[in-house]
Amino acid sequence: VCFILGGLDCSISFVSHVLGKVCVHGRHKEILSVLVPLLMDLTKSDCIWQRICWRLIECVPDRWMEAVVLGFVQRTPGADVLSRLLGNLVVKNKKAQFVVTQKLLLLQYCHTTAVLQSLLGYLSLDSLRRPLLLKALQELMDTWGSSSAAKHSPPEQQLYISKAILICLSHLKEPEVESCRQELLTSMMEGMKCHLDSSLPQIRRLGMIVAESISSKINIDGPVLKFQYEEDDESRELKSLLVQTPPFTVVPSLLDNENKKANATLPLVLESNKSSRTAASVMPVEESDAELDSDDDLIPYDMSGDKELKTKAPVYIRDCIEVLTGSENVDKWEATVKALESLVRKNPAAAREVSVELAKILLHLEEKTCIEGFVELRQRAQVAVLTTDPIPVAKYLTSQFYSLNYSLRQRMDILDVLVLAAQELSYPKFHGKTKHSGAPKPCIQLLPGSDSSKDWRRVVDERIKSKTRRFATGQPQVELASSPNEFSSVAGHFFFPLIQHFDRPLATFDLLGEDHFVLGRLVHTLAILMYLAVNTVVVPAMGKALLEFVWVLRFHTDSFVRQGLLSCISSMLLSVPTERLLEDMTEELLETQSWLGDVVEKDPDGDCRRLALQNLLLMENLKNKLKTVPS
Amino acid sequence: MALPPPDPQFVLRGTSAAVHALHFSCGGQEPGVPVLFSGSENGFIHVWNLKTHRVDTALDGHGRKSVYCLETMGGKNRLLSQGRDQRICLWDLAEGRTSVTDSVFTENVGFCRCSLLKVAQGRWLMAMAAKAPEEVQVLELPSKTSVCTLKPELGAKLGMPMCLKLWQLSCGSQPSLLAGYEDGSVVLWNLSMKKALSQLACHQEPVMSLDFDSEKAKGISGSSEKVLSIWSLNEQQNLQVYKTHELVNAGISDIAIRPDKKILATAGWDHRIRIFGWKKLKPLAVLDYHTATVHCVSFSDHKNPSERLLAAGSRDHRISIWSIYTQT
């Protein structure tokens, strides 16, 4: 495209029209891949070309403006180039302004970080456009801070908005921060609250990172917020967005000051260490020569008995109970806590006599002194007690789950202990020396945290694969020694009491109300218990009860709960024998199928959609399996 | 083939409370009975006759509050005791009397044992923890006049003084004070100039006890951790760490160097008394008799070397007397 210069008034509106039409038809990639590099070169130093370029885009009719602007924003490699090409388009053209400040930031979230960087950088580069940057930041903060957005919008959109906020922050100058400090503070507090309320760890972490960044920006002198969370690629990427290379940002200099201070204190410490060490090394050299030892006349006695003092742990379980409930002797208490699990496992008969009492003590046991791994020790002891005497202890624990005056942490501990014990009971134990080579069931890695949902997906995936191929491969060569599934007789005792009272709110505990995080954990626990009860007699009854439970809760607003419900369906489909499924629960299954279809299409959470899809696949597989089996 | 450690020569029972302080008085000019003073947690000071192994007298002067420091001022007839009732009492025990002749109200509720040094005939200096948090006060006895108050500089954050030792190089020279503090450092104070000459951070935990050998200018300190720290004083009056020794179990409550400077004893929280050679801190023996933490150790001042004894007082109400390494 070559224009004749030299004082001619060219009309380029025709070109604009063509450009617009092409872009709106979806061909912006082809035309802009040629046009944009050309324009980049031409506008590098030539003002006239710049103005021509601006005119070109301004003349695009409004109905095609969005497509053109979107194409340009996506194609240009940087904020300064975008600024050269678009000029002050966003100030002059209402439609362009809407697209840049609203649509691209708030309504769409498919764009890359680079696009966000160039877009927001473009807004910050010119003083006429900076108010738009501030306005965009304000609207982003409003969205970030609204609790309904945090609850209902997909995690990907929340990530996008967080990134946009961080980039905006990095572009802000001191006076601007001063002017909007108060609003930033208020929206930060609100946003932090609704993010930390969420059940998904990713959302919580996003909230923490953004809040930390905002607080470091607005509180330069005072104390800043500091959260503890796991670092990974995503969080590092987000944090890197805060630091911008352009020279006028405040943040890099802040970091420099902090670094300088840290470096200054280090040399002082090093120096003092060095001086004391060199002095100390001088002394022994002198002394060792002048030693005519009259000390050698003193013959040492036998000191082999001088060992570390260790308090002995009690050897009987009843003694342990005494120490844990009453004793003032802290050393003995520590030793007891460490020894309890192995004692319980070695003396099952004695443990059975006092199982409920032990369970009660362990549930209420609090850390008296600082022992390493106290939580784990207590949990392992509880699991040991539960596996030794499942029925009464399960009865006690499930009844306590729904009782008054327990903390959320204790209720979730109960759920964790039930799951771990169920896993231990159901895992095939091999007696004798045969090594178990690849058990037919995949092992579940249970982490006592809210990560169980992620591992669940892996398990379900593997299960689907293994199920669909099972009829092709033959039996493994080695006959593994089998033993009865100890979980089968007690599965019902673990499962049904947990399901019983979920809809009865107590004064301090309301599963259907505020405590939806515990509800999510409860649902996941039920899914795992269901899965572990495969091939047991009580499984069809469990399946029916579980299906009813899921049906009641299927429209719950918390996505963590919904993920749990879908895992329940998966484990039910996997555990209950297909014939029983189709005989007893045909109508419910059909209803479930239509619900799953709905979830696949309309649920805002990506994980829920994936789980629902897997469930539908599972159901298909089961149906096909039945058809292929010759009757 | 090393011999098993010796048993105690005898054990004194009858204090009916934990023993916190011990002091021998056996080398006096007056021919008489060698005596051991013991201070207990129930406030009594027992005067033990070392020939009959029985209590001769029991002194009650601290209102049933624990007595944690005992010193004699020139013979067994003048006793100084320090108790948790915030008082330091001076006793006159001659001719069977048991009266408190004088007392100093310290206003200090800590556990820091006072230190006594004879500077001239009839004149002693006593260093004790003062009322203000980090201060040490030095008094002259028996006049009870204040010689100086040693205050660490602002921001030093030493914590409470935990143990004190007054010493002078030879009779007539300037007395100095070594103080161990709560933050694990030992400070050398010059009393005439009233300022700190040197400070050494030898422990991470509070210094529980220290002792000093003025001839060799070497000292040792123990703390609630597992490390014994030996430090020395050079010509510039600077403290430097000479050596450290790691113990098997943490916690030392008392350290004493024998007057002939050959061996030293430590009293441990792990119920054991440890004997080391002083020259190179060679471990010599571990005496495992007591069943609770040993609070104090003390060497006797017998003129005859073969009669020398070591006493240890423990929380199990017993005082064990040992005769160990008496041949050298």
UniProtKB/TrEMBL annotation, chain A:
Keywords: Cytoplasm, Membrane, Nucleus
GO CC terms: cytosol; membrane; nucleus
Cell location: Cytoplasm; Membrane; Nucleus
GO process annotations (BP): 'de novo' cotranslational protein folding
Membrane spanning residue stretches: none
InterPro entries linked to this entry: ARM-type_fold, TEL2_C_sf, TEL2_Regulation, TELO2_ARM, Telomere_length_regulation_dom
Domain Telomere length regulation protein conserved stretches: 314-422
Thylakoid is among the record's keywords: no
Pfam families in the record: TELO2_ARM, Telomere_reg-2
Single GO term (MF): Hsp90 protein binding
Domain TELO2 ARM repeat: 129-223
Family that this chain belongs to: Belongs to the TEL2 family.
Name of the protein this chain belongs to: Telomere length regulation protein TEL2 homolog
Organism from which the protein derives: Podilymbus podiceps
Classification of source organism: Eukaryota, Metazoa, Chordata, Craniata, Vertebrata
From TrEMBL, chain B:
Residue ranges of WD repeats: 200-241, 287-328
InterPro entries in UniProt: WD40/YVTN_repeat-like_dom_sf, WD40_repeat_dom_sf, WD40_rpt
Keywords of this entry: Repeat, WD repeat
Protein name (record): GNB1L protein
A Pfam family hit: WD40
Organism annotation: Podilymbus podiceps (Pied-billed grebe)
PANTHER family (alphabetical): GUANINE NUCLEOTIDE-BINDING PROTEIN SUBUNIT BETA-LIKE PROTEIN 1, TRANSDUCIN BETA-LIKE 3
Coiled-coil ranges (or none): none
